[in-house]
Amino acid sequence: MNAIDITNVHKHYGSLHVLRGLTLSIPKGECVILLGANGCGKSTLMRCINGLAPHDQGDIRIFNESLSQLSKPRLRTLRQKVGVVFQQFNLVQNVSVFQNVLYGALGQQRLGLLSTLSCTASQTLRERAMKSLDRVGLAHKALASCRELSGGQQQRVAIARTLMQDAHIIIADEPIASLDPKAGREIMDLLLEVVSERGLTVLCTLHQLELAQQYGDRIVGMKAGTVVLDTPREAAALSDMQALYQGDTRVEQTPSSSTTRQPLKAI
């Protein structure tokens, strides 16, 4: 079974045609590295997969369930299977590392926020949170405030929070863009080790082509709202990846919305 099936998906923001008939399938357990210049639609694609932005046309299926046909409660349940690792970590800076990891279980708890607070969480949840922190090498920082951590350490906390979520799919949106090269490689190593251990499916955007050549199973390249490159990592030519960042890479207005077709701001 494929974890993700995307068929002829279109997405507009007003007159801006962002995704243009995009089709992509990702088998369960595969790690796909997604490349493309700013403005090509990568972030919009990820938001559509996660159910945060409804697509206008086509079909997106997560484990063979069509997002556009789900009720809101079922969509929320399905989204719990999709963990997101952000470029800017999205941690609550003024609370402890331990508390941030506990928040990863929020969607699983019928009692809501109260059940994931460190002072009221069950012993089972507390043990899971510590195990997740131990896996990313930060059990000794459990009581520290997130603002006290380095960027690399904060991204490790974000990965631990995703482990706590018990997601089946990981969407990593430029997870190392704000890190130095050494920390970035360490995070990529950790992320890929963890997803391999658990048999998770990964869609990870990167801009660093040298890293794209070293990580993942498959390279997918986007340009102007559609897939233009799809190849096993070992077969990906550097020249083909570089071409994704050359020429007309940005999404523009549709012809009917403007007579001059001026480029708009990147999405």
From TrEMBL:
Which compartments does it reside in?
Answer: Cell inner membrane
Annotated segments matching region Disordered: 248-267
Q: Does the keyword Iron-sulfur apply?
A: no
Keyword Signal recorded: no
Q: Which domain of life is it from?
A: Bacteria
**Which InterPro entries does this chain map to?**
AAA+_ATPase, ABC_transporter-like_ATP-bd, ABC_transporter-like_CS, MetN_ABC_transporter-like, P-loop_NTPase
For this protein, the parts annotated as crossing the membrane are none
The principal localisation class reads membrane
**Biased composition, class Polar residues, residue ranges:** 252-267
Keywords for this entry?
ATP-binding, Nucleotide-binding, Transport
Which GO terms of the molecular function aspect are on file?
Answer: ATP binding
Protein's membrane topology: Peripheral membrane protein
The ABC transporter domain covers: 4-249
Among PROSITE patterns, the record links this protein to: ABC_TRANSPORTER_1, ABC_TRANSPORTER_2
Q: What is this protein called?
A: Phosphate-import ATP-binding protein PhnC
Organism expressing this protein natively = Vreelandella lutescens
| Gene name linked to the record | phnC
